[in-house]
Design the sequence.
């Protein structure tokens, strides 16, 4: 029995046999991590604490201070909601010309000695000049 497990693919869709498509192993974990980061706390009625507070930064400037806070929010959310991974490093790099924070998550699936990474772009609203 696998510790990692499997679940519905995201976004939900049907496979070629008209069954719900499933995601397993690393694909399931990567999709779960994206769901956690993309969900604002309060968005899920039956689980109001679920999600990542990074969305509070949408109107903040694209700079190092915002990147530090974003790193903390991502680390807190993934530590709480994705127990199948061990976070090794989270790097948040402000991309000023795009008005985005590039979030790189380096992790290891617990019980495996295989380092993985996930890059997630988070766009902030550019400041008016």
Sequence:
């Amino acid at each position: 029995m696998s510790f990692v497990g499997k679940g519905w693919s995201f976004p939900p869709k049907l496979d070629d046999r008209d069954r719900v498509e499933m995601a397993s192993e690393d694909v399931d974990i990567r999709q779960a991590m994206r769901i956690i980061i993309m969900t604002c706390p309060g968005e899920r009625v039956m689980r109001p604490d679920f999600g990542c507070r990074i969305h509070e930064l949408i109107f903040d400037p694209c700079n190092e201070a915002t990147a530090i806070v974003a790193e903390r929010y991502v680390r807190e959310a993934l530590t709480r909601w994705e127990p199948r991974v061990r976070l090794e490093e989270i790097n948040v790099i402000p991309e000023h010309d795009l008005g985005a924070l590039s979030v790189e998550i380096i992790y290891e699936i617990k019980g495996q000695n295989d380092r993985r990474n996930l890059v997630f772009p988070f766009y902030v609203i550019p400041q008016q000049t």
Q: What stands out?
A: The chain has one domain: 6-123. Residues 6-123 form a domain with the Nuclear Transport Factor 2; Chain: A, fold (CATH 3.10.450.40).
